[in-house]
């Protein structure tokens, strides 16, 4: 049975049909009864599990009762959708697409293929492409008063020496690592293309519109804003040490902020991977106050090179 067929059939058994014009706000006892029924059936489902925990194998009707409660939940779920003018088929389809974009490994590979393997500069002249492999040396600057670090590529300092720009030592001075992670995992970093952290600009001048929109100051400012927002979220969550995921609302906000840019083709799962990888590297570098970082855009990895003892 298709979801839409079930939805239409279930609606015929509704004892409190809603009389509502499409576009009107969902108010009235009809919708409240459906919502309360949905909550009540969820409680019944939990009650069945409580009985199973209490009675163990002697509770022979467990599967039958669970199936019945799930059916009741489906009815109320369908009923809520109907009263709000929503299509259950579309709800199911959209939900699968959302889940696949974040957790389906195969789906992630397909998205990578769509955007050139997470390389938005494929086909541009070599001098307009981001370097495929980089080795960063991050080290503290001594005698600078407040903690300060510098970043070197091939022995040359890139960018200015960085402090935390904060009243407390929160390690934000190491945040440039996030831009390299975005480049590796997402194939995207207007900040890197601006030349602030590389030996020169890597803007895609071959396409003036791409150069203006994707590689311009507005996109770079947006990337810095996203980095600061993610840092604030991470700061409230132990800087994501040992984290296996991030909150969906954070990913949703990032996707909304970047909807007009090429990076919108990257999935929520790509962003989650970038955030977790970024803070894994950031935590290591902060804990040892510097180190060597290997960036590989083809392998989509950023790793900290092990320190050699002695």
Describe this structure as you would to a colleague.
The structure is a single chain. By secondary structure, this protein is of the alpha+beta class. The chain has 2 domains: 3-86, Orthogonal Bundle (Helix Hairpins), CATH 1.10.287; 105-304, no CATH class. The chain has 11 helices and 5 strands; from the N terminus they run αααααβββααααααββ. Strands 3-2-1-4-5 form a 5-stranded antiparallel beta sheet. The longest helix is centred in the N-terminal third of the chain and has 27 residues, at 29-55.
Topology, number of strands: 5
Mean pLDDT: 88
Distance between the termini: 68 Å
Q: Tally the helices: what do you get?
A: 11
What best-fitting shape do the alpha-carbon axes yield?
elongated
Described by strand count, sense and barrel closure, the largest sheet is: 5 strands, antiparallel
Q: How many structural domains can be distinguished in the coordinates?
A: 2
Give the amount of beta strand, in percent: 5-15%
Structural class: alpha+beta
Order of helices and strands: HHHHHEEEHHHHHHEE
């Amino acid at each position: 049975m298709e979801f839409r067929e079930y939805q239409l059939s279930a609606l015929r058994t509704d004892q409190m049909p809603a009389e509502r014009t499409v576009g009107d706000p969902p108010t009235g006892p009809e919708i409240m009864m459906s919502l309360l029924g949905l909550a009540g059936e969820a409680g019944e489902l939990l009650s069945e599990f409580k009985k199973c925990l209490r009675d163990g194998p002697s509770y022979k009707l467990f599967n039958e009762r669970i199936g019945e409660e799930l059916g009741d939940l489906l009815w109320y779920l369908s009923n809520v959708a109907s009263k709000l003018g929503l299509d259950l088929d579309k709800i199911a389809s959209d939900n699968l697409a959302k889940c696949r974009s974040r957790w389906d490994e195969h789906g992630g590979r397909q998205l990578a293929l769509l955007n050139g393997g997470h390389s938005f500069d494929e086909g541009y002249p070599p001098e307009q492409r981001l370097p495929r492999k980089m080795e960063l040396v991050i080290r503290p600057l001594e005698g600078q008063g407040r903690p300060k670090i510098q970043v070197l590529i091939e022995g040359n300092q890139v960018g200015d020496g960085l402090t935390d720009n904060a009243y407390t030592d929160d390690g934000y001075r190491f945040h440039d690592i996030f831009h390299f992670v975005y480049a590796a995992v997402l194939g995207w970093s207007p900040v890197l293309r601006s030349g602030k952290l590389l030996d020169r600009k890597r803007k895609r001048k071959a396409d003036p519109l791409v150069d203006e929109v994707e590689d311009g100051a507005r996109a770079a400012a947006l990337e810095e804003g996203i980095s600061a927002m993610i840092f604030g979220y991470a700061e409230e969550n132990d800087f994501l040490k040992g984290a296996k995921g991030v909150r969906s609302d954070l990913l949703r906000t990032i996707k909304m902020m970047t909807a007009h840019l090429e990076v919108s083709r990257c999935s929520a799962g790509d962003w989650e991977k970038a955030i977790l990888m970024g803070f894994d590297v950031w935590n290591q570098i902060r804990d040892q106050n510097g180190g060597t970082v290997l960036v590989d855009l083809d392998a989509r990895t950023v790793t900290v090179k092990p320190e050699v003892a002695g």
